[in-house]
Amino acid sequence: MANEELVNKLKEQIIQYLNLIDVTPEDIKSEAPLFGPDSEMELDSIDAIELTVLLEREYGIKITDPKKGRKVMSSVDKMADYILENGMV
Amino acid sequence: MFIRDLSCISPQATYFDALFENGAEELHGPKLWAKEPSYKEIIPNKLLRRMSKLTRMSVGTGLPLIKKHKDIEGIIIASSNGSLDRSMRFLNQIIDYNEGTLTPTDFVQSTPNSIAGVLALMGKITGYNTTHVNQGLSFEASVLDALMLFEEGKSKQLLLGGGEEMSDENYNIDSQRGLHKAEDISTSELLHSTTKGTLPGEGFAMFVVDANKNSESLAEIVDADMICHASKEEIVKKAKYLITKNGMSPRDIDTLFLGRNGDIRTDFYYNHLQNTLFSDQNICFYKNLTGDYYTVSTFATWLAAKFLGGAKLPEECFWKQTTNAVQNVLLYNNYDGEQHGFILMRTV
Amino acid sequence: MARRVFITGMGIISAIGNNVSENRARLMRGETGIHKAKLLQSRYSEIFPFAEIPHSTQELKERAGITGEKGISRTEILALLTIQQAVKDAVLLKNDLTSFDTALLSASTVGGMSMTDQLHQDANKIGEPSEYLSAYSTGKHTINLLKRFGIKGISATFNTACSSSANAIMFGAKLIKSGRCKRAIAGGADALAKFTVNGFNSLQILSPNPCMPFDKNRSGLTLGEGAAYLVLEAEDVVGTKKTYGEVTGYGNANDAHHPSSLSDEATGIIESISNALNVAGLKPEDIDFINTHGTGTENNDITEQKGMSAIFRKTPPFQSTKTYTGHTLGAAGAVEAVFSLLALKNDELYPSLNCESPIDDFNVTPNMVYKSGFEIKHVLTNSFGFGGNCSSLIFSKV
Q: With contacts defined as CB-CB under 8 Å, which chain A residues touch C204?
């Protein structure tokens, strides 16, 4: 289970980096998919690059392989897990 | 070509035409920001979230027109600076992160043609599509572009428009260039000013234009022309050239829309043209409503079209009012005393 | 009957030469201009190859005869150098230039933002204002060039990303055809800049190796810099001047699919080429040679081949000169118009480079050897850009 504080901070950062409108951190479900047909957010490949930038700037994590990026960014929980394992929180 | 429909976002309440009911609002410098409508009903959130202010204004004015007029075949946009704020954000990222991993959204929108691209995409309009960035003459060139498409018989209906957004960074650059008033000044004082500089503004105006006159035509755009780095005598010569080329004489012009902006260094061009060729005409000003920006001729064209279509202009617009009926209108604007543009319009 | 439009002068500067003859010589020999950048101030000059013009901005100023002038961007100097060539080549006199009938139509994507570091300082009010305060706006180079050449007629600056200067040439041809002008100087310029290098890198489409258009293993584009301008003149003022060819066709369309990539259906490409053929009154089989946009990105090359295959029953010989000059962005349409006119005038084909394992989806491969004595009556040149902007030009023998 990912750190709750980190998850909430991450949600706020996602809203900021993607300029999400009328979305609060509570609206983003931690375990729900961020990308793909089952996601509520309708994010696309440009958003994926934006989230890569978020991880690098906020947590010092550099992701160069887009396939790995998709895996890491599949949900907020997954992102938080990856940050706890690899990042500078 | 004939203006069939139009929409405008500006520092005044123009989006719903309140300007004509309530008159002009006095605005204070140093920056005249556009009054944007709520875009919620016009643009879906998932698209709106990525849009620059300029893109929002262009879609806010353009998309409702595209939805209403199903025969629009092409898009011509004038915007000298495009989504300036995005360019500057991208630029600052390059330096702040020492050319590290950067966000592409700002870069894609930094190019001025992204506006016409977004409108084409949202309206599924695959015809002629271009973007003019020739500083203070961008819109005049766009008018010529549209006229030629119609003359070629390639299109019957087009979306034509333009505008600019302001950014803090660009305000810094233009201030250092000496384009802005150093003192605090309001729009009602602007045209009486005897100092250097003007008030910067922003906005977007969009037109649906037809090749042929029809029952919905509001006004005709007859022709446009331009000249750069000219003496005041050459300005008069160019105005005459445009008017006579279109089978008229200066006496046939009854109303002038002049881009006077309160800059002591360049307003003499307006005085000279007015005194030399147009001593008995209605004289209208508009930069005391909007401030100045590269594509402010789009606002002037919007205002003139409304006037030709029968709207009562706010009293602030009239420098001189005659008893002349409004039939033939000449718009003359110069940017920075260097780029001089003309647009000729008339009633339908 | 609309007036015919002839090309009476050309000027060019690119990574493969300072003028028309130097560029032609390098094309004939198949010598690329893509190398490691020596002048570009960017951390990526170590990582990606570029097609850089091997002269410092100061050297270029000296060549243009403006050594002591301040506040002129590299983009504008490139434009100035090539317009000087084109005006001389077409023997335009002072009276020709100052006539209300003469237009200047330019194009650029980065414009004065090529001075990226200075712009950052001025925009954020860091230190004293730089000499470039008035130079950043894309259209400013055009306004300055009007003054320098004393041009008093119509002017325009196009920004439609990578198709910008093709639109400038198209607009010039239309101004003349419609009787609004007698002559037009039309083209575009773009200098290598930190701004565009970082922009294309953020989209992850810069190739680590020199670009490989139409190769299965292509991995992106190579950025270049350059400028090219044509002098277009109406048939009734050409007189006995030499001509390089005639502008017979032009088309412009929008792909209306995505902000930064082309649709699988090649909608914009097909509409743009069809419009050009239509204006020229030509059938697809009349086209003898195609200069492609051919950037070397995954998306462009396959879509472009799809578009060509949809129009041409048998695709004529085609090539990409971006393997020589890199992608010169706003200048590309005009740079490649010059190359197309050289091929047309001299009846020759230049080799496309770096295509080792051609894309085999459409059973066509680019021309990869120099050929002389290859008769060309009509050449088609294509330019496509971000924002879905597609433009095509057709030049024909006079």
A: 49, 66
* Residues 6+ positions from C240 with CB-CB distance below 8 Å: none
Domains, chain B, ordered by start: 2-210 (3.40.47.10), 219-346 (3.40.47.10)
Which 8-state DSSP code applies to residue C158? Answer: E
Residue position matching structure tokens 């198709």: C163
Minimum Cα–Cα distance from C115: chain B residue = B91
- Residue C52 vs residues B12, C35, C79, C351, C376: alpha-carbon distances, Å: 48, 8, 15, 20, 31
Interface of C with B in 289-318 (CB under 8 A): none
Q: Tokens in use for B125?
A: 């309009």
Q: Which stretches of B34-156 are DSSP H helices?
A: 45-48, 53-68, 84-96, 104-110, 114-123, 138-151
E-strand stretches of C74-117: 102-107
Distance from CA of C305 to the nearest CA of A (A): 24
B113 to chain A, closest Cα gap in Å: 19
The residue type of C25 is A
Q: Which residue of C has its CA nearest to B234?
A: C152
**pLDDT 10s digit of each residue in chain C, 398 long?**
479 999 999 999 999 999 999 999 999 999 999 999 999 999 999 999 999 999 999 999 999 999 999 999 999 999 999 999 999 999 999 999 999 999 999 999 988 888 888 999 999 999 999 999 998 999 999 999 999 999 999 999 999 999 999 999 999 999 999 999 999 999 999 999 999 999 999 988 999 999 999 999 999 999 999 999 999 999 999 999 999 999 999 999 999 998 888 999 999 999 999 999 999 999 999 999 999 999 999 999 999 999 999 999 999 999 999 999 999 999 999 999 999 999 999 999 999 999 999 999 998 999 999 999 999 999 999 999 999 999 999 999 99
Residue B183 to residue B302: CA distance in whole angstroms: 30
Predicted-assembly ipTM surpassing the 0.95 threshold: yes
pTM: 0.96
Question: Residues A27, A29, A30, A32: what is their CA dihedral angle, to the nearest 10 degrees?
Answer: -140
- Within its chain, how far is the Cα of B262 from the centroid? 18
- CB contact under 8 Å between B101 and A52, yes or no, is yes
**Does A52 contact B at CB distance below 8 Å?**
yes
Residues 6+ apart with CB under 8 A from B311: B17, B20
Give A 65-84 residues with CB within 8 A of chain C.
66
Residues of chain B positioned with their CB less than 8 A from the CB of C119: 91, 173
Distance CA C170, CA C104 (A): 12
Answer whether A89 touches C (CB < 8 Å): no
Question: Which of 3.40.47.10, 2.40.50.180, 3.40.190.10, 3.30.980.10 would CATH assign to domain C1-398?
Answer: 3.40.47.10
